[in-house]
Amino acid sequence: ETLDKGLEKSKTTFFGKLGKAVAGKSKVDDEVLDSLEEILVTSDVGVNTTLKIIDRIEERVSRDKYMGTDELNTILREEIAGLLSETNSGEDTEITVPKDKKPYVIMVVGVNGVGKTTTIGKLAHKFKSKGMKVVLGAADTFRAAAIDQLEVWAKRVDVPIVKQKMGSDPASVAFDTLSSAVAENADVVLVDTAGRLHNKVNLMNELSKVKRVMQKVVPDAPHEVLLVLDGSTGQNAFEQAKQFTKATEVTSLAVTKLDGTAKGGVVIGISDQFQIPVKYIGVGEGIEDLQVFNKFEFVDSFFK
Ligand code: GDP
């Protein structure tokens, strides 16, 4: 229900436009395909993924010789679900914490302002609600506000936070965080890192160093690298995904701010382009406003 509410704008926009494009037409022709292309691009699906979808539909049209506009929804839905299936194989894609990896280390990356801190807070709440012991690490040391904000979330969720003063070495904070998590027998560690996208080499060096130092405490850390992207920023989100996947091995995505945006299509494009599963979507500022990504629900809400 919240998902429907959250994606309402994407839905009306996408579906409304599609309805307009096919109004008065009974079959899918070049004109309909052109409109569809434009609608997908303006919904931030991204050019490459849009062309892939259009190609697949063209293929079906030429194979079957005819496609009614009334079928178009069903077929688009299938194609989009198919694209999402290539990266999100299960129905729900939540991060699962295996019992034999303790502490389970999740390194969280993303540029400032995308909702990284908020997502960490919401995730901490999710894990804690499942009875897990959570520790937060404030290794985004560039801005005092980042540390303060994470501390506010730590208090709200009531989990311990490891921090140093602003400007300290992120790797050193990560080291302290993991050491503390081991000492306290924690189940999950969420490490907030690198809020800067200065240049690719620096980002890569910084993230590699954080990883290397983490591995002194937990040899196979990090177990997950979660990239947080702001779903309302369209092409910026694509660009950030490109930079971060070049700098480090990103294992999962959280796409935030999908409430109040007409840009829900970014989820489709990014998950297709980077072949990384979207595990969570942010649909508000509150503690409960982080949903486990479910591709079927997502596709349905896009079309309902
Ligand atoms: P950070 O700089 O990446 O750590 O970003 P923050 O976590 O501080 O979030 C920046 C702003 O975005 C804050 O005002 C958050 O409340 C807001 N925010 C984060 N996630 C969401 C979301 O899913 N929906 C909405 N509407 N706002 C969000």
TrEMBL record:
Q: Which reaction does it catalyse?
A: GTP + H2O = GDP + phosphate + H(+)
Entry GO MF terms:
GTP binding; GTPase activity; signal recognition particle binding
Q: What does this protein do?
A: Involved in targeting and insertion of nascent membrane proteins into the cytoplasmic membrane. Acts as a receptor for the complex formed by the signal recognition particle (SRP) and the ribosome-nascent chain (RNC).
Q: Which PANTHER family match?
A: SIGNAL RECOGNITION PARTICLE RECEPTOR SUBUNIT ALPHA (PTHR43134:SF1)
EC numbers on record: 3.6.5.4
Question: What is the name attached to this protein's record?
Answer: Signal recognition particle receptor FtsY
Q: Where in the cell is it found?
A: Cell inner membrane; Cytoplasm; Cell membrane
Subunit details for this protein? Answer: Part of the signal recognition particle protein translocation system, which is composed of SRP and FtsY.
GO BP term, example: SRP-dependent cotranslational protein targeting to membrane
Q: Which SUPFAM superfamilies match?
A: Domain of the SRP/SRP receptor G-proteins (SSF47364), P-loop containing nucleoside triphosphate hydrolases (SSF52540)
Residues where GTP binds: 110-117, 192-196, 256-259
For this UniProt record, the keywords arranged alphabetically read as follows: Cell inner membrane, Cell membrane, Cytoplasm, GTP-binding, Hydrolase, Membrane, Nucleotide-binding, Receptor
InterPro entries named in the record = AAA+_ATPase, P-loop_NTPase, Signal_recog_particl_SRP54_hlx, SR_rcpt_FtsY, SRP/SRP_N, SRP54_GTPase_dom, SRP54_N_sf
Q: Where is the SRP54-type proteins GTP-binding domain?
A: 277-290
A Pfam match: SRP54_N
Its membrane topology: Peripheral membrane protein
One GO cellular component, as annotated: cytoplasm
Task: Family membership, please give it.
Answer: Belongs to the GTP-binding SRP family. FtsY subfamily.
